[in-house]
Design goal:
This protein has 182 residues and is an alpha+beta fold. Helices cover 17% and strands 51% of the residues. Strand 5 and strand 6 form a beta hairpin. The two termini are 42 Å apart.
């Protein structure tokens, strides 16, 4: 299933309707993790969200996204489709009791057939994993267990934009000028 999003861009005094055909969706990834680990609904969140009241939870954030190579463009006479090959680094952090064990378990699940099927259905792939890091820290009078690792995903970002046909061209050669078209 592809989630289409529409937006408008302003181009020289004129709006341009753009449609996102495919993008890396961390909300979908968080939902898959929550269901695979059978966690409560709010247990897998974006790290930018306010403090979580649960004693143990997982955060996921895109750290950076890089374009690989040059985007390709296809034109069907009315719309231009721009396809970018991308790599996104996602930080996965587990907080609370047994968070290191949860990090190892999650990293193993990311290599399961079920997860590979999920990736394939979204046209994503895993390039590599970092090591699991122990980020347990003293917080106030107690300590908080934390485990963290990064995953680099490959994916495409695909956008459709309208492209008006060229109706008139002025051709100049030496001292001559010629209008071609309308």
């Amino acid at each position: 299933m592809v989630k289409l999003t529409k937006s408008k861009l302003w181009v020289i005094g004129k709006t341009m309707d753009t449609t996102t055909i495919s993008a890396f969706d961390t909300a979908k990834l968080r939902k898959w993790i929550q269901e695979a680990l059978k966690l409560p609904k709010e247990a897998v969140i974006g790290g930018w969200l306010p403090e979580n009241p649960l004693p143990a939870f997982i955060t996921m954030d895109v750290l950076n996204t890089n374009e690989i190579g040059q985007a390709t463009r296809e034109f069907d006479g009315k719309r231009e489709r721009i396809r970018q090959s991308m790599q996104s680094t996602v930080s996965v952090s587990c907080f609370g009791r047994n968070s290191l064990a949860q990090s190892y378990k999650l990293k193993a699940i990311f290599q399961s057939s079920a997860f590979l099927s999920f990736l394939k259905s979204n046209h994503w792939g895993v390039i590599r994993f970092s090591d699991v890091r122990n980020l347990t820290a003293t917080v106030g009078a107690d300590y908080e267990e934390r485990g963290q690792f990064d995953v680099i995903f490959s994916h495409h970002h695909i956008v459709d934009t309208p492209l008006d046909p060229i109706e008139r061209v002025e051709q100049r050669t030496n001292n001559k000028s010629q209008d071609i078209g309308a």
